[in-house]
Design goal:
Layout lengths: L1 E4 L3 E6 L4 E7 L5 E6 L5 E6 L4 E5 L8 E2 L1
Antiparallel strand pairs: 1-2, 2-3, 4-5, 5-6, 6-7
GO cellular component, one term: preribosome, large subunit precursor
Protein name: BOP1 N-terminal domain-containing protein
GO molecular function: ribonucleoprotein complex binding
Amino acid sequence: MFFVATKKFVQVYDLQKAEVVKKLESGLREISSISIHPGGDNVIVGSKDGKLCWFDTDLSTRPYKML
């Protein structure tokens, strides 16, 4: 798995298949940072305005919780 953050989304790629497998929709204005659990199933996304989105990628492409 390979994660790429753009201003609004985090795309998850499967490099062996050379395809996008998930597109995480944060709803944030502008993503400034991401942190990925080693298992790849939990992702924290931070924005420039201080908000955080927590994704459980096994459940949904929408945030599990916003802080």
